[in-house]
Amino acid sequence: MGKFGHVLLAVAVLSAGATGSRNTPLVNVQQFGMCQCPMTSSWFNYFWDHCIVHGTGIAQIVNFTQSFVGGKKGGPVTNSTWNTSFHGNQEIVGDKFQLCAAHFEPTPPPQAESVPTYGWMDFEACMNGPDGIIGIVDIPNNAHSCANANNHSWLALDQCAHGQLGNQLYYDSVWYTSSMGIEYDVAKGIPVIHIDGHDYQGLAAYLDLGKKICDAYTGADKPAGCGCSETSSATIEKIRAQLY
Questions:
Q1: Which has the closest alpha carbon to 91: 157, 144, 33?
Q2: Cβ–Cβ under 8 Å, residues 71 and 122
Q3: 79 vs 172: CA distance, rounded Å
Q4: DSSP 8-state code for residue 218
């Protein structure tokens, strides 16, 4: 299959197990990252904690997917660079574990009002560590303990990450990211997220995150009080220090 065939497959693969059928439209939130990049992992845990876990209505209105950046220089990839990574080969294995966890997410029943489920995010947040950063130095070695802590089948994840399925998921993911024109460049800002196709990088990926998502939701059933949990000025300053 050519790379553009893989790009089309990647869209389906990255969303596999994340959403059920639903009459009201979901807001597509995408993160493009590297599992051992602290600016990637810290945003992921921030979004998971403030929006998915402790937000109001966010988990019910978003389709959150994650795609990884390949190549030793942070993208784009070529036929000779797609299977390399900025932080080394262990990062590729970590990316595969996280892709496999999302791939195995149970699909909700095919009911009109079924909503996304995000058990895979608990697994990834565990790998990132409580502050979103401290755990990444142990990736992928912490995958086993995080699988056990979050009721994921270690056997299934391990076989996926070290087998053909993991290779396919990773290949499709980095080619999809590359096809979207994503390059990791500190000057342009990291992390990199898209909300319904709108690009936000660096600090912009954090500021008014809940408002951006809720404003993008066009369904008549927008959750009352829709938004992420409040972020203190101290947290924003800590984020600013991490990014710049």
A1: 33
A2: no
A3: 12
A4: -
